[in-house]
Amino acid sequence: MQFVAVEASPEIAAQYALTHRANLVVASDSMPEDIFLNDLDWIVQADICDPKIRKAIHTWKPNIICISSPCPPWSTAAASAGLHSKEGLLLAQSILEARWARPSFLLIEQVAGFAHHHHKPMIEQLLLYSGFQLIFQKTLDLRDVSQPARLRWLGIARRVHAPVQKLKIQAWPRKQENLFPNPTLALPESLKHQTVVTAQMEEVASSPDFAKHSIAKTPAQILQAKIFRPTEHLPTFMAKYGTQHLLDKTFLKDKGYFGHFVHDTTVPKGFRLWHPSEVVLAHGIVDVMHIPNDFVLANKIVGNMIAVQHAMFLLGNALTGLTEDKVNIMDLFDLFQNKRFRAETSHLFPIGDGHMIIQNNMLLLNDLCDAAQQLLTWKHELPMHAIWTPKHGLIDMESIHKLIMPRPQSMQSPSPLTEEETELEDTLPDTLVWQPLIRGELQMETSQQPFWYSADMPGHVIAKVWDFAFGITFRGVEHPTTAILTPTIAAIDQDHPTDKRCAVLLIETELNLLSVDPQMALLKQHQINSVANILYDQFGPVAVYQTATFDAILTDRCPESEGLEVLLKWDSRPLWRGHLHPSHDIRSIAMILCLALFPISKGKVYRIVSKGKQQPPETTIQSLRSTSTQPAPIVLFAVMELHGGGAKQQQKAIQQSAIATAFLEQGHPLEWTAKTVDSIVDKVSLHRLQAITSQPKRSARIQSLMQLCEELKIQIPEIVKPQTKSVAAGAPWQRKKKKEEMPIQLGEFTLVGAFFMNEDGSQAPQIQGIRPQASGVCLMNDIQAAPILKENQKLSSDELAILVVGHQYPEHVPSQEVTFPCTNANGQDVLLYGRLYQLGGKQIQINQGNPQQVPATICQLTAITMYKEDWPEQTWNEAIHSTNSFIRKVLLTDQLDQSLQAIWGRSLRHGRAPASPQDATSVQVHATIEAANFAKLLQKSGFNKLYLTPKQQSGRPASEYRIVWLHGECSVPKAIAASAQTTNCAGLVRGKNGALGLRYPQDAFDAAWKVINPQTAPPSDFQGDQLFKIENLPFGTSQQMITAWAEANNWKCKPFRALGPTAWMVKADAGPPSGLLMFNTSPLLIRTIQPRDAKKNRLVLGPRQQAVQPAGTEADPWTHNDPWATWQPARTPMPATAPVARTLEGPIEAKFDSQEQKISAIRSELDALAKKQDQHVKSVQEEFVIAQQREQEEFSKIHYGMQKIQSDLDQNLANTMKQHSQAMEQQFRDLKTLFQQSQKRSKPDAADEPME
């Protein structure tokens, strides 16, 4: 049974994970959806309405959901706000979330005030609307079965259509007890201060203002009424216990103070508070529990937790509806009382910032303590992508699948499809073309009626619905009504059609899939007529006119006397309920659903599911009729079709792997399997293969595959059954290969300190060789130690010893067997077995540990064997596949199932050879049984078809019992009659050849023999426990001849098994006489057969050594006795590496490996290309930077040159202008000087006349 919890508080989630050793994960988008598909318990730190956890929970598919919402909204000791508070709405939200997971049962636990709360009818109505029926509700008091009072309302709701058995609620146990075991503990000093009653607390507890329900009047009487002795009935422990006096005084006056104390004479006041650990013991627990040191948090956890008895009552009653095994509530509660923790046998073990309540005979593993410390460090905020496990602590979420074994899942078997439907479904598109719906109108003389049709529908199809009674005219899309239907002349001459209730939605492609008569109007045909109610219930009344040829109306319901009642559900909610004609088929229902739910489904087809599987389209309502005498409606579930699910090649690869696994498990050859799988996948459709491989029963899958091979004319080879022990049955990976035992290189091992000590208590060092007056422990093999031990001399006055590991040990030298710890060259811890030889004047001491640390329990080793012929086929399959639980179930009938301490070593045999589960005729396991119940269990053995063989610790049969074999044709009834005539019979025994015998103790064997075989003297008893093999006997030596030879040589032995014509196995209590032993004229070879435990020259526990390949075939003759021949240089310790996972070699795996190699090669090329691209980008960026710098330098140079040219031009122009100005001034000066000179011209003479 697996549990998954959801808790919003990080601190409470951490405490739950630590108490129940459950894995803790924080809800996130990266949480795998298959994280819960294993056998581990989990708790998710998230809100119950967080959508991140839905996919994982729905993939897990819980059978039972338990709801325990916060109690203050429903408690009379609080505000009782109910659904008017945020916490009160959590109950309703939890029910709404649970409906999506579709569990078989809802178990609800709430305070007693919920039973009378005015919001309770709303919760009951919500359960009904969510598909659950409340089949049990009652307020039960924990005081009936335990010490404290704790009234709780308990309810069981069953999903209406869950395929479970009808529950018969068993009664709540009531035990009239007034005295109980004292639950008070010897608290550590660090916790005693938490139980001290303060003055403020005492004042509030004794105040009459807060004693609402108290009869006492004075403060002293009120306080005394709240003090209880630890062995009497106690009041309820609230979550605010110890801090309720700090609440608002007005609230306390209204509700009252509910605190109480325990009488304790060791404290000053004579009373104190209960510690949360004591409260837990008073309520009752059967497993460890973590109590934080925070007193307020601890009381909150204890006060809010569901009592174990309440949880057992709900779960015990609900499980009877899920399993065939009946759970007896009275027996369950009695078992709880016997297993519950007691204060005298329990104590508080400190761990982290709290304590763990454990029993005195319990020890916590270091892994759990370290993981708990890590969890308590992160309890306020766990990393989002991490998971906490009790074994490994915090780990990455991606590596969780590497540390846990997934639980096998079987796919739901799809309904069988025909070959035509298979080919059709393979070619269906993943999406459908969407067409809008356009409005049309029927125009009559006095009224107009609208209708809707698909945009891609031809006009004649629309007219055919009314049997062409209306003519159709189309208009443009700019008009609100694009199709106008007017009555034809024949229709006008008829009476005015009457209004009828119906809904019509015309989609040509969908209607053509119906089995319709093309000569008849669609609405007149039975396929549409019988399911028209569905359309009406969804869309309401729509008027459609009736013509003379159209007299069948959609809403004409089928009479109840002719039809069958059908309940149609969609999305877990009732959609329609009514009567359908028995000849109606699933195809028309699916098509009408597609039309009716078109606004939601967008034209997708609905699959109809009934009786747990998808129904083919041709299935009729009559075939789904229940065979029960009580009338019940036929329930149909409408599920929208799904497309996708991965590529077809990937699905084919999955089917190839499943088929190959089935054939190989049967023992078929690998080559034949590979060829057959490829042929089947190529010739058979994928749907049929999925239907075969998803069958839950293995035998059904094999039978279907064999039938498929016959259809394909594939010759099936016969499976060779094993005839000898050297041939193993089953798949190749199930055959165990005998590993070659490697010699131990003792130079690679280092002894662990503090195991070997000197006489003064100091650590004895490890030395590499034996030297005179050396001190320490030297590790050698038997060959190296033989010359030293042969002398048998003391070599040192201090502590000196040799640890010898090997086969041969000298018997004349005293030694001590020891299993000692050491580390190998890689730093890994291992255990070796050897003998310790003392060679010093002082003794090397061995650390004995603390023998009283864990009390040892006395038990008996035994082998349990079951035979196939004793059990029916179905029961034998259960015994093969669930051997441990099956044995406990058989012993449960005699109340002896708890006597089994441990079971291991399952062995399947066909005769004497190993066999696969399908070929096994016997199964044997080994177990340890409590010594107190072993005699009683042994008496029942054989008669209950479980054959027990008591064994010694070495594995040999126990010598305390002898067997009286029943000769002749003896059956089990005759054996029972024979055992009834004798006393002290220790069970029925079955031999290897099928013979039956009765087991008796040694002291009762003779008396039983005389009763069963009165005419024969009882055989002699020989108690020797040493085995010897005698070889080179004369040919044909008999048992009497060996007995006579032994008497002649004064050797007490008993021959019991012939190993050949010249060899016998004998047992004796001592070795053979020394010297030459001859049988007449033949010398004999007598060898001791060592028991299996004596060969402890190999590693007892720890990693194995790797085989070293020899360099050559020829051995070096000079290294035979060289002590340095095996020396190797010291190597630095290497970190331990995890073992490489075993891979299965096969055609599918080879293809996967090749694909992985190609993908990895492409990935490496892409990585190299990405690196080159990054380098190119960097080089381009660097070039851009250099170009920018160069451009800036050129720009600065040009700018400087332009400024220089400008300054030169300015200077030259200024100088030129200045020179020009000076020249002009000089010229003007010269002109001025010329003008200032007085040079006048003389007048002409008068005598000078002009000549003309």
TrEMBL record:
The keyword DNA repair does not apply. It comes from the Eukaryota. The keyword Nucleotide-binding does not apply. Residues 1217-1252 are annotated as: Disordered. GO terms for biological process: methylation. Coiled coil: none annotated. GO terms for molecular function: methyltransferase activity. Keywords: Methyltransferase, Transferase. This is Sodium/hydrogen exchanger 8.
